[in-house]
Amino acid sequence: MSEIHWQEPFCSGGGNACIQIGLTTDGTPILRETARPHELVTTTREGLRNFVEAAKRGELDHLI
Question: Fewer CB under 10 Å: which end of the chain, C or N?
Answer without folding.
Answer: C
